Amino acid sequence: MTNVFSWFDAAVAELADPQNQRVWSIIVSLFGDLAQERGAKISGGALTRIIEPMGIKPEAIRVALHRLRKDGWIESTRSGRASMHFLTEFGRAQSAQVTPRIYDRDPETPETWHLLIAEDGPGIHTLDDLMLTRHYTAIGRNVALGAGPLPRNCDDLVAFEVTARAVPDWLRERLCPQDLREACTSLRDAARHAFETRPGDWQPSPLETATLRTLIVHRWRRVVLRHPDLPPVFFPPDWAGQECRAEVFRLLDTLPRPSPAQVNSFT
Amino acid sequence: MTNVFSWFDAAVAELADPQNQRVWSIIVSLFGDLAQERGAKISGGALTRIIEPMGIKPEAIRVALHRLRKDGWIESTRSGRASMHFLTEFGRAQSAQVTPRIYDRDPETPETWHLLIAEDGPGIHTLDDLMLTRHYTAIGRNVALGAGPLPRNCDDLVAFEVTARAVPDWLRERLCPQDLREACTSLRDAARHAFETRPGDWQPSPLETATLRTLIVHRWRRVVLRHPDLPPVFFPPDWAGQECRAEVFRLLDTLPRPSPAQVNSFT
């Protein structure tokens, strides 16, 4: 038992994001993973029990919940003595938008790509507007790369169908800067180590599972959403994205997602 | 005969470039058309007889020849009483570089294209260097479009193989500005009118032929070399490039190129 307990503590410490322990952001990851369905609620007690092992105090959780309510992400109701928290429609929509990319085990790189080029000067704004509403990667101040077919209305933009052939270091460096490369390799190593040292006889509680899943998803989210699914030529040679993804899902697979009812019943 | 003479005078007036009668530039066109071969020489007398009908005085021709010698385009020797002028190796090389494009009756638009994108800021210089040594079209300050395969060394540039899909008005306008569109339609109309009004029994002298050819080539050169052979999508709907080219060659075909010996023998 000592061994099992110390593995959980070690895994929590190892999987905690060294760069971001912002509590409101962890709560967003938690709801996205465990309670994204309409009607899914997490009790205040469960929330505290899932998050506290990360070294976060109940007071910090209350402050974060207050902020998330103010920003329209979360609503709270009372059920008897317990407070119950759930995502608003806005929160669910935000969460649903990134869910496919976070949980894609084997994303296919799109085969068709296009470039949009704005006129120097005033044209930048047309491009900015488009980049806000669709998923584009900036190649330069007035050039954006997008997957799939051209937008129906290119407005004042020059549009090319393209195949990337050469990507210099400055662009790879801009797309995958040092901190992102490090976040990727350190998550890969942490997930691998947690998987490999996990005692074979460990039966986690739903709350322990929720703690570990939240940590993994939170940290992976911050890696996977920062770099777009570009063709391999865009990534630096030491980019560990594929390995990191493999380790993340290998570990998550040992931690089947508990239902909200399961985590709430333990409080 | 009156009719024939007046047609020649009218054609000369009509074919003269309303935007550029710079004498040194006309002489460059003349040598490029009539005496581009190594060893080909044009006598001073022939030069005057070819150019004078354009309303250019012998003194202006002398000044232009002086400038062309100073710039390394032309050399002059004496042969008995006559001065003989010819292109230097530099002049021949400059001339040879543009000859294929000037005399191409039916240019094929290249099928493969590529875009090179420089980093904002310092990267512009890499692109500038490349654009000086190869034929590229600027799409923006840091984006250049080139025909054919990628350069072997793209240096610090992002490189895409591309197919153009949408070209907005601002780019068409930049590639074919109003003055170029007008130069194109006015040359088309002038060449067509000269062809259609030409008396059937007219037998031009080698010097008359040389005058008309020089005027046509000079004016066409300034249209054809200003716009690159881009795919049709890049041109404004009123771009008369194809029609202009057709009229230019229809008229040139009625004026077979005289040899240097032929034009020199008349002086």
Automatic annotation (TrEMBL), chains A, B:
Residues 189-249 form the Transcriptional repressor PaaX-like C-terminal domain. Pfam families: PaaX, PaaX_C. GO terms for biological process: DNA-templated transcription. InterPro entries: PaaX-like_N, PaaX_C, PaaX_trns_reg, WH-like_DNA-bd_sf, WH_DNA-bd_sf. Residues 24-89 form the Transcriptional repressor PaaX-like N-terminal domain. Gene3D superfamilies: 1.20.58.1460, 3.30.70.2670, Winged helix-like DNA-binding domain superfamily/Winged helix DNA-binding domain (1.10.10.10). This is PaaX family transcriptional regulator. It comes from Ruegeria marisrubri.
